[in-house]
Amino acid sequence: MRSVLFLCLTLFTSAVPNAFADCKCPEKPSLNQAVEDASIVFLGRVTSIKNSVMREGKMEIEFAAFNRFKTEFEETSSGRQLLIYTPDGPQNCGVEFLLEQDYLVFGKGNPARYEVDACSRTGLVELVKEDIEALGKKK
């Protein structure tokens, strides 16, 4: 019985190793490189998090942007609202955004499909204060 259980566990863990694998990123880019590579860089508060209906495997994150470092915002009746897409889990290099928290975001793409991943310099404001300070000096 023990050998059957061992065999089952061995087969299970060898058959699904990627299901639990962590995202593998190269070294994070320098701040200058991250800004150069990004289409949009801004500070914003997460106002909504949901699975994307239109983009399978992506989370749709809505931000109320309150400071921009790169690009222009489209003004809407509700202010500076931006949608950002990220892969749907840390194993897929998705950024795990928290509702009502402020972030520095480095997005790539265009207004219809800005995307971020865990390999970018995107992060909670409290954790990226040096980047924000440096970006403020560049304005």
Describe what this molecule looks like in 3D:
The relative contact order is 0.20. The chain is globular. The N terminus is likely disordered. The protein has three helices and six strands, in the order ααββββββα. It is an alpha+beta fold. It has one domain: OB fold (Dihydrolipoamide Acetyltransferase, E2P) (Beta Barrel). A hairpin with a 6-residue loop joins strand 1 and strand 2. A six-stranded mixed beta sheet has the order 5-3-2-1-4-6, with helices on one face.
Topology, please?
Elements: H1 2-15, H2 31-37, E1 40-51, E2 58-70, E3 81-87, E4 102-107, E5 114-115, E6 123-124, H3 129-138
Parallel strand pairs: 3-5
Antiparallel strand pairs: 1-2, 1-4, 2-3, 4-6
What keywords describe this structure?
139 residues, 6-stranded mixed β-sheet, OB fold (Dihydrolipoamide Acetyltransferase, E2P), alpha+beta, globular
Short description:
The protein is α+β, with helices and mostly antiparallel strands and 139 residues long.
Number of helices: 3
Beta fraction? 25-35%
Which residue ranges are poorly predicted, with pLDDT under 50 across at least 5 consecutive positions?
2-20
Rounded Rg: 19 Å
CATH class: Mainly Beta
Strands of the widest sheet, in order across it, are: 5-3-2-1-4-6
Q: What is the subunit arrangement here?
A: single chain
Which architecture does the CATH hierarchy give at level 2?
A: Beta Barrel
Count of spatially separate domains = 1
Distance between the termini: 68 Å
Provide the CATH topology: OB fold (Dihydrolipoamide Acetyltransferase, E2P)
Helical proportion, percent range: 10-25%
Instruction: Name the structural class.
Output: alpha+beta
Overall body shape:
globular
Number of DSSP-assigned strands: 6
> How is the main sheet built?
6 strands, mixed
- Which H/E pattern describes the elements? HHEEEEEEH
Average pLDDT, rounded to a whole number, is: 82
